[in-house]
Structures are given as C-alpha cells and as structure tokens.
Amino acid sequence: MLTMIFAHRGYSASYPENTMKAFKEAEKTGCDGIELDVQLTKDGEVVVIHDEKVDRTTNGSGYVKDFTFKEIRKLDASYQHKMLFKKELIPSLREVLEWMKSNQLICNIELKNGIIPYEGMEEKVISLIREYEMSNRVVISSFNHYSIVYCYRIAPEIETAPLLAEGLYMPWVYAQSIRAKAIHPKHLAASNELIVSAMENGIAVRPYTVNKESDMKRLLDVGCTAFITDDPVRALRVKKQVKK
Ligand code: G3P
Ligand code: CA
User: Fold this and answer.
1) Can you tell me the mean pLDDT for 76-84?
2) How far is the CA of 20 from the centre of ligand 2 (A)?
3) Catalytic: 81?
4) What pLDDT sits at residue 85?
5) b or e along 5-15 (b: 16 or more beta carbons within 10 Å of the residue's beta carbon)?
6) Could you give the CA distance from residue 220 to residue 161 in angstroms, rounded to a whole number?
7) Mutate which of 35, 49, 109 to test ligand 1's pocket (most atoms within 8 Å of Cβ)?
8) I need a labelling partner for 87 at 20 to 30 A (CA). Which of 75, 129, 155, 157 fits?
9) Considering only CA atoms, which of 38, 50, 41 is closest in space to residue 122?
10) Model confidence over 26-43: pLDDT tens digits?
C-alpha cells in the first residue's frame, strides 16, 4: 500500500488553517485525506478550530466555549491572511461532513479536549459521523486517550488513533490494548523500526507534522501508512519522485 498524504488543518501551508477554503484546496491537490481539530461552542455546536481561544486565528478574542455558534460565525478565520483571502468562517463539523459527501477524502478528526474537557463532545462528533454515514472515512484522534477509549466504547465501528507526542515503548501493544487501529506519533518520535514493527502488528502509523522533504522521503521509503503535512503539494511531489 502506498503511503497516503493527509493535509494538516487542510492545505494550511498556503491557506487559512481549518477553513473550508483550506479543505477544498487540499482536495484539489489530490491528497488522500484532511486533518482537522474540533472544539465546542457555548451552545454545544462542534466547530473546527485548533486553539481553545479564537485569538490566534481570527479577528476575535476569547474562548470558543464562551461563544454561541451564531456569535463565532461572525469572526473572520482568514484574518491572519487578510491581504490574500476574503473572509472565511469557522466551519462547523456538520459543514465539513456535508462537503465530504462530494469527495472521497478521509477525514481525521482530532478531538481538542485535553485542556477543556468538553462534556458530551464525543457523543456529538460520533452522532454527526453516523448521520452522514462517514464511519468508514473518519479516523478520530486525540492526545486525550481517555476520550479515544470512550469513543471506541460508544462507536467501535469508527477507527481511533491516539496521538503520541513522545517516544512510547512498543506503542502497537498499547494501541491494541485500547482497541485503536492506528497511532499518530510526532514524526520525530517515529523511528523506522517503530513504524515497521507497528505495521507488522497490524497498527497503522500516520506521523505528524511532516513538512521537510527529507522527513517525507524517509517515511515514504519505509512505507509508512500515511503522514500528516501542512503542504500536500510538496508531499505529493516527493511521493512521485520516490516512486520513480
Ligand atoms: O493530528 C496531528 C497534529 O495535528 C497534532 O498536533 O497541535 O497540530 O493539533 P496539533
Ligand atoms: Ca491537529
């Protein structure tokens, strides 16, 4: 199986991260999947944004949890790139899943509930995935492994993947113990030996966030399941060169 390319927060090297623009531009590159981050608004809408606060990526200020969905939709999520792009809204997860009906992408949904323990987030995300019949095109990941296990318990049909920021001994054994089908390690914590052993033990490996050509080449050479990158165009170019 060829290594798949996932666009991190969409095609975030060139477009405002976690926006429909970034996801649509990622799809145009021909990559295999997108990665996105979710948080919950005050009125319980699952929204696509990386930080707990809106300050870095929008023209607003404050915690996502303190905005209603209607309020958060007034913000401009392309604010950092305002000279280049028109206004972009913070998408709801529903909007992304609706758009996914028009393509074949895989969607890696990262639950951002390690800092704020959004109550009911897992149920809401899973209910949306089921409503849109996307269970076989979604991977749920998180640094919050309690949440990963909870997702498996309530939706065993959806693939889960713990995010691993540091070296973990025999992570495939850990993954099997929590019924995860994959691990998403930081690429620096994913040696070739680790990748091969995990895959031989039936655990998919999708390192993040891989932006340097030399790192991409290493993962392609070792035949990693996929990797997550801000720049899917660069990744696809390197993949083409490696295939030759
Ligand atoms: O899913 C991989 C990666 O996105 C995890 O880190 O901080 O970019 O969400 P972060
Ligand atoms: Ca993420």
Assistant:
1) 85
2) 16
3) no
4) 83
5) bbbbbbbbbbb
6) 20
7) 35
8) 129
9) 38
10) 999 999 999 999 999 999
Q: Where are the beta strands (DSSP E) in the chain?
A: 4-8, 33-40, 46-48, 106-111, 138-142, 159-164, 182-185, 204-205, 226-229
Ion ligand 2 neighbours, Cβ < 5 Å: 37, 110
Q: Does residue 163 have its Cβ closer than 6 Å to ligand 1?
A: yes
Active-site residue, from 8, 81, 184, 187? 8
Q: How remote is the C-alpha of 9 from its chain's centroid? A: 6
Which residues, in sequence order, are CB contacts of 57 under 8 Å at separation 6+?
A: 16, 17, 18, 49, 50, 51, 77, 79, 80
pLDDT of residue 80: 82
Going from the Cα of 206 to the center of ligand 1, the distance in angstroms, rounded, reads 11
Does residue 230 line the site of ligand 1, with CB under 6 A? Answer: no
pLDDT tens, position by position, 92-151: 999 999 999 999 999 999 999 999 999 999 999 999 999 999 999 999 999 999 999 999
Pairing relation of β-strands 106-111 and 204-205?
A: unpaired
pLDDT number for residue 12: 97
Residue 137: CB atoms within 10 Å:
18
The residues, any chain, with a CB within 8 Å of residue 229's CB and separated by 6 or more, are 5, 6, 7, 8, 13, 209, 210, 211, 216, 235
Q: Is 145 a catalytic residue?
A: no
